[in-house]
Amino acid sequence: MMQVEVPGVENEIGAAVRVLKCLDLRGKVVTGDAILTQRHLSVQVVQGGGDYVWAVKGNQEQLREDIQTLFQPERCTAGFNPVPTDFRRARTLDKAHGRIEQRTITVSSLLTGYLDWPYAEQVFRVERHSVRVKDGKVTQEVVYGVTSLRAKEASPRLLLQLVRMHWQIENGLHYRRDETLREDRCR
Question: Is pLDDT of 25 > 60?
Fold first, then answer.
């Protein structure tokens, strides 16, 4: 949609602020990888009329820890039942590029109002299980995320689709530009 120059003393966070100011965010969903998981960007998107879906990694350590804790299996004392959850799931299975990939998303609204994160409505855990067909090599990955979309606005299936669409852009466009054109190596 738009490009802005990132001066040498800045990273893509500052550029994202400038790009978002120029866009009509009403009714749009903004996705981003972990570097864009920033409080001020979350506020900017929602106050602009949009919603966000962010990946959460080590740069937001407390947020990641809270989400990860929610999705860990509960250990119950004998004679007690586990605490009820609102976990909802969706799963996809694809065969492409010589791999069989299964993606499972687990979504919850239990942390709404608890998390110290602006406009957080749902959190999620995406598990990716991939098997390379030619040699059987197995790859597994777990990614956590947060979104301002409410459960009635975004089902687990839709959230999984949004996450998948983000990585299709990341891998299809950015990877080509970074690796083939070596843009990240130009200073």
Answer: yes
Q: What single letter denotes the amino acid at residue 48?
A: G
Return the closest-CA partner of residue 34 out of 46, 52, 21, 10. Answer: 52
Please tell me whether residue 80 adopts helix, strand or coil conformation.
coil
Q: In terms of Cα–Cα distance, which of 104, 121, 103 is closest to 112?
A: 121
Report CA-CA distances (Å) from 69 to 73, 137, 159, 184: 9, 29, 20, 35
Domain range annotation of the chain? 63-72+85-177
Q: What angle do CA 23, 8, 5 make, to 5 degrees?
A: 30
Q: Which of 182, 167, 169 is nearest to 1 (CA)?
A: 169
pLDDT of residue 186: 56
Average pLDDT in the chain: 88
What pTM was computed for the model? 0.83
Fold of the CATH domain 63-72+85-177:
S-adenosyl-L-methionine-dependent methyltransferases (2.20.130)
Residue 145 burial (10 A CB sphere; 0-12, 13-18, 19+)? buried
